[in-house]
Amino acid sequence: MICFNAKELKGSRLRCLIMTSGGRGTVAHNLQELIQHNGVVDLNQDTWAPGGFLEPKEVQLNHATQFFPEHERDNLRDWWLVEGNRTPEWDLVSTFAPNNDGDGIILVEAKAHHSELNVNDNCGSTNDLNLIQIETAILEANASLNGIHPGWNMVRDGHYQLCNRFAWSWKLATMGYHVILVYLGFLNAEEMGDIFHTHEDWHEAVINYSDGLIPATVWGKQITVGEGSILPLMVSCDQQSSFNG
Asked: What is the domain extent for residue 228?
């Protein structure tokens, strides 16, 4: 038996489960729409999580045996934590084939209303050693990205989720992966209140939210990091029926 809390059956959580439900061909098509022409999601080759309503668990990358070998999962955990093994959860993760060959990972952060873009979002760890380690990891990513494209100012607290999303994308890129980081805005989620009505609403909200932390000019541009890369995309979807980006 699979049980859901009421809050999981609305907003972005519900829509991510809908997006990954159905046959493999349907899900691969949905994921392909997310990344557009920037690679290929193959229904026969690629792996994703969650797996719809029957496999709804969100992904912590250091536990993701379907995506990374053990030594890479250990590397990710040790980079982020001193103690324990709980790392940020992702709304949706999938493999894909990059246009420039190599291994590709799609990381999705999904939102369905303005309040989810929280400027007072602080790291929730209560472990002092982990807090220092997480801050070090984010600052390491920030320094590296500034050397490639000036204008980064990522922090641990204040915009924690935004900054950890880019930091994790950077870390995977240093490991040779081609990462597509999708900021996905679900439109017209009427049950949520302060919603995004159009792609322009979503784009403006993300730009305002990330102002001063993430250079606005990196969206839609591939950032080369060693043998890997990061491609940040802003994409919107109205109840699965149409994608924009």
From this structure: 6-244
Q: What is the pLDDT of residue 70?
A: 98
Please list, in sequence order, all residues whose beta carbon lies within 8 angstroms of the beta carbon of residue 7, skipping any fewer than 6 positions away. 13
Q: What is the pTM of this model?
A: 0.95
3-class DSSP state of 124? coil
Total tally of structural domains belonging to the chain: 1
DSSP for 30-84? HHHHHHTTSSB--TTT--EESBGGGB---EEGGG-TTTS-HHHHHHHHHHH-SS-
Q: Amino acid identity, residue 179?
A: V
pLDDT confidence of residue 191: 87
Q: How many helices (H) and strands (E) does the chain have?
A: 6, 9
HSE toward the beta carbon, residue 77, CA cutoff 13 A: 15
Residue 242 has pLDDT above 70, yes or no: no
